[in-house]
Amino acid sequence: MLRRSKQREAILDFLRKTSSHPTAYHIYEAVRKEIPNISLGTVYRNLRLLRDEAEILELDLAGSLSRFDGDTRSHYHFRCEQCGRVFDVNEPVDLERNERVAKKTGFRVSHHILEFRGLCRDCQTSMA
Ligand code: ZN
Ligand code: MN
C-alpha cells in the first residue's frame, strides 16, 4: 500500500473522475487549483508511483505524449491525430488474441495494448 499523501489523493481523485486521459501537465493544472503549492515534479513523481502500484494506467505508445487513465480495466483507446485527444473505445477486448500470439511465438503474453488513430468527430466537422 502506498503511503497516503494529500497530493497523491488529489491526483488519483482527479483521474478517477475524468475521462479525458490528461497529460501530466493537465493534471498539474487541475490539481494546482486545490493544492496551489504543488510542483510539476511532485505530480510526475506521484504519477509514476500510482502507475507502479497499478492504481492508474499510463498510455505511452511510442512517439506520443503520455496520457494517464484512472480506469485500470483493460480497454481500447482512440487517439485523434489532429487534436491529440484520447477517447475510450467501447469495444470488447480480444483476449483470444493473447492466446493466439502466445501459441504462435512461445512468448508468455500478459496483455496487449491497442490504440486506434484517425480523426475525432469534432475534427472531422472542422475540416468539412
Ligand atoms: Zn480531434
Ligand atoms: Mn481509457
How would you portray this structure in words?
The chain is an alpha+beta fold and 128 residues long. It folds into 2 domains: 1-72, Winged helix-like DNA-binding domain superfamily/Winged helix DNA-binding domain (Arc Repressor Mutant, subunit A), CATH 1.10.10; 73-128, 2-Layer Sandwich (Dna Ligase, domain 1). Helices cover 41% and strands 15% of the residues. It has 5 helices and 5 strands, in the order αααββββαβα. It has helices at residues 6-17, 24-32, 40-52, 95-105, 121-127, and strands at residues 57-59, 67-69, 76-80, 86-89, 115-118. Strands 4-3-5 form a 3-stranded mixed sheet, with no helix packed on it. A two-stranded antiparallel ribbon has the order 1-2. A hairpin with a 5-residue loop joins β3 (76-80) and β4. The chain is globular. The N and C termini lie far apart (50 Å). It binds zinc ion and manganese (II) ion.
Main traits of this protein?
5 helices; globular; Dna Ligase, domain 1; Arc Repressor Mutant, subunit A; 128 residues; binds manganese (II) ion; alpha+beta; 3-stranded mixed β-sheet; binds zinc ion
CATH class value of the largest domain: Mainly Alpha
Give the CATH architecture of the largest domain.
Orthogonal Bundle
> In the CATH hierarchy, what is the superfamily of the largest domain?
Winged helix-like DNA-binding domain superfamily/Winged helix DNA-binding domain
Distance between the termini: 50 Å
Helix-strand category? alpha+beta
